[in-house]
Amino acid sequence: MTTETQTTPVAADTAPKRKRRDEGWSSLLWLLNRRLGIGLVILLIFVAGSLVLPFFSPSDPSQQATYMKNLHMTTKHWLGTTALGQDTFWYLIFAVRNSLLLGIAVGIGITIISTAVGLSAGYIGGAFERIVMLFVDTFITIPLLPILIILGTLIRANYAYLVSIIIIFGWAWNARTIRSMALTLREREFINMARFSGAGTFQILTREIFPYVSAYMLVGFINTVLFAINTEATLAVIGLSKVEIPTLGSIIFWALNYNALFTGNVVWLVAPIVATVLLFLGLFLTSTGFNEAFASRRGVA
């Protein structure tokens, strides 16, 4: 009798927990679609590989003359070696990691600034909105690539300058979009109810409006990561970034600089190009997959 009275409550208590867990998983099923699934798998492979594999690297891949030059693919050197005596495979692993870290850092910075500026301008309105949008429109009209080329000396000196410059000149587009979303939401009935209930501006922005723009923020963040990686790769290929640090752009720069295609070391050039295309494909599919999922949730698609 004692055993039954002890086990029955446990069984009764685990059933609701299991039900809530199943409901939590089922509530996320609406997100799944083929495009998003493929994109997430590609990104998972890149992220997991670039974060875990560097711990098993036998040496610093950025160090030159570590191995014999221009070795072909073997079991010891899966993608051969470069003309600088570096293992191509491990250099590529570190390049993907550094490019992803740069993209994520830029994405976080731009997302925070654009969300704060866009939400506040769209909800507060009036003179504040006009002043803020004047700055937004000004930054939108400034071309980023010429600025980066002009400031190439700073970028080559410190990678943090590159991240900062992209954030400073790259937040305006997302801010304008979020501001337009906030404009459509601020006159909704639930916003008026919150305002009449005594909720302050910060509380309305964070609790009432922010959940409606969070879906776009996620898509915008992924697009920003893609934009940042592409920008750094463009600068590195033309030699205007810190090419001593392994990135997807710097490995292509060194391969082109040492004529890898004509010296027979094709893998040195092709491997980073294939990795870049696959990474961009994963980011693009994930972004459009989330966008498709959120659109179908709203009944748009």
Features:
301 residues, mainly alpha, 12 helices, elongated, disordered N terminus
In short, what is this structure?
The protein has twelve helices and no strands. The protein is mostly helical and 301 residues long.
Structural features, described:
With 301 residues, the protein is mainly alpha-helical. The protein has one domain: MetI-like fold. The protein is built from twelve helices and no strands. It is elongated.
What would CATH call the architecture?
Answer: Orthogonal Bundle
Instruction: Assign an overall shape.
Output: elongated
Helix content: over 70%
What do we call the CATH topology?
MetI-like fold
| Strand portion | under 5%
Q: Kindly provide the name of the CATH class.
A: Mainly Alpha
Write the layout of secondary structure elements.
Blueprint: H1 2-26, H2 34-52, H3 88-124, H4 126-141, H5 144-150, H6 152-157, H7 159-170, H8 172-185, H9 189-196, H10 201-237, H11 248-257, H12 266-298
